[in-house]
Structure formats: C-alpha cells, structure tokens
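Data deposition worksheet. Section B asks for the primary sequence of the deposited chain exactly as it was used as input, without tags or linkers unless they were present during the calculation. Section C holds the resulting structure in token form. Section D is free text for depositor observations; keep each observation to a single sentence. Incomplete worksheets are returned to the depositor.
Section A, Depositor: J.P.
Section B:
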Amino acid sequence: RIEFNTNGSGDACTSFGSGEAEDYCITIDPSTACTGTPAAGTTTASANPVCPGSSFNLTLMGASSGADITYQWQSSPDNVTYTDITGETNPTLTTSQAAATWYQCVVTCTSSGMMAASTPLEVTMAPFYQCYCASNADFAGDTKIDSVFFNTIVAGSLPTTCETYTDNTAFNTTVNQGSTYDLRIRNGSCSGNHYDAWVAVYIDYNQNGDYTDAGELVYSFGPTTGLNTIPMGNVTIPGSATLGTTGMRIVFTEGSSVPPPCGTYSYGETEDYLVTIVGPACPPTLAVNSNPIADGTYEASMDITSDGTVPNGGNVVFGAFNSIELQANFEVVLGAVFEIVLTGCTP
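Section C:
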C-alpha cells in the first residue's frame, strides 16, 4: 500500500482528508540456491580520487546475489596483499581513507563453497588543493564578487548572476618567489543593492592544505562603501613559499569583520583559484653595443630581453676600462632601448 497524504503523515489504515492510497500485490518466491563459482563483478567507487577523511561508497557491478551469497570486503596498499575489513560483509561499503588504497570484495556461494574476488579498484588521493575546507554563503542574493584580476587571472561573472561559491580552479597563474603582483577585486550585487561587506584573500604558501598559517591572509579590506569600492591591493610572494601549485581563496561576505577562510555565512561569495609558485625571477638580460661617435664621445645601447629589476645594481661594460654603474632596483622593460652617451673619453 502506498499513501500520499497532503495533511501530514498517517498510518496504513486511517482515513485522511485529501490525498490518495494505492494497493498492490507482490509475490515473494524462495531464492534459488547458488551453484559453482559466483560472479564477483567489478568494484566501483562513488568518488575517485578522494580527499582525506571524506566518505565514499564502494559497490559491486555484475556480482551474484541471493540468500546463500556472502560478501567480505578487503583492502590492500599494493594490490598484492589483501586484508579483510572487519565487519564489512555487505554488498556495499562506505569508508574513508588517508592514503591511496586498493579494494576488492570476496563473494562466496555458501552452497558450493566456491568463492571469487571482484576486479580490484585503486582509490587514489586528490591533490591537497582540491581538499580545502568548505566556504560558501547560505543564501544566493545581493553581495557577490563580480570580477578578479591577479597576474594572468582575469575572471568574472554577469553582474545579475547570484552566486554563493565559484570553483575557479581552472584559472592557474604562475608567480615568482619574492615578486609583487597587483590584485583587483570588483564587488557587486546581483540585486543591485549595496550592503557593507568585507573581503579576505588567502594563499596556502606552505601547501599544508589550510589557510590558517601566519602570513597566508595576503589581503583584506572592509567595509565596502558601495559597489566596486574595493581598492587595488598587491601581494608579495614570500621567498620561503613552497614551490609548486597551491590554492588561493577569496571570501567576500556581508558583515563587520575580516571573514575567515572556512565556514558558511549569510550573504556573499567564495571563489577558489590556483597559483603555481616558482623560483625568483631572473635578473634582466642586457646586451650592450658600443659605438664611437667622435673623439671624446661614445654611444652605447642595450637591447632588453626580459622584464624585471636589477636587484643589486651592477656595471654595464661597453668598452675597455669603461662602464656605467646601475643603482640597485634599476627597472627595465621588455622591448625598450636604454641608451648611454659618454663624453670626455678617448676612443
């Protein structure tokens, strides 16, 4: 019997004011005893790869079933030596893991005493930057992030699109240890109404899977005074930052303080990005050509083949015993031409 009651839950026999009841018949047949070797099927997972501690389900595709079929799940670190998982004797398994693990299920026909193991499956671990704590708004409306500009990242959405969380990890920009980069965030509202809000930007510099270490809050501002009122910021990548790809998270929330990197909030938006940290930028390469103009005057030009700053100064040699000293932090721009004219010297 199936009952649908718009006035609330009832029971199988009591009348109700509005809704419907339907009766059906089913026939239950005795199960047929299995014979020979059962089909163990293929091990499948509801998620793969997975994050540490996150639950996932393992099931069997194409396995035998019946009253005289038993199941025993097993795990292995190497797909060679398998160990029974205590108490896991159902055709499905819900579990979690901290390291990549192989799984199979031994299916036994108790009538014949024959058994078979399912095709094993390795469940791998997701990269740490896919496993950060959750952060999102509870309600979609009003305050949101319209656009983000950081190094080569240019991301945004329509001003009228209400969002609570955006996975922008398809955007991955490369940054150098010791270099500084401009950061521009445009705050918007999908309703067009402004509410005071705060923004925080976090980078997981040590790649330990969280944004709570000292120095990982790289920019914050608040409260906003209107739409598109977050000022330009800059982010300096520490020389101690771990090399490789890591996460960058922007949290923008209505409220009265800097938002934390994790948890939920009423209105706003969280956006996740990736940054790849590489070593310090190499000093610019300067190729110098000298040419005598006349007695006592030399001309030298340098073709600049890379952007950057000459960090410690240095000398540009353009002729025997002649040089120009550049001060520390001398800026050069790719494609520019730097010309030097010296007078009072002998060709």
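Section D:
The mean pLDDT is 88.
The chain has three domains: 42-126, 129-278, 286-343.
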